[in-house]
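Feature request, filed as a ticket because there's no other form

It would be nice if the structure record came with a short human-readable summary line next to the tokens. Right now we just get the raw output. Example of a typical job, pasted below so the devs can see what we mean:
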Amino acid sequence: MKTSLKNQYVYTNNILISIVSAVFGYNLYQAIVHPEKSHLILSFILLAITYFVCKKYGYTINNEKE
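Raw output as currently delivered:
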């Protein structure tokens, strides 16, 4: 599998999005079930950072023939 320089961050962004989704889901569960143990604000900050990183480095694959 050949990876060009333009789409090297796609795999990393997919892993980052899945980890952030899991953390956000867990913290949302904690906010509903145990509000005193919730860190929902930190999850929103993590979501914002993930959004800007994915927007900066791109999250679509550019298909180019070389």
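Something like this underneath would help us a lot:
Residues 5-57 form one domain.
The mean pLDDT is 76.
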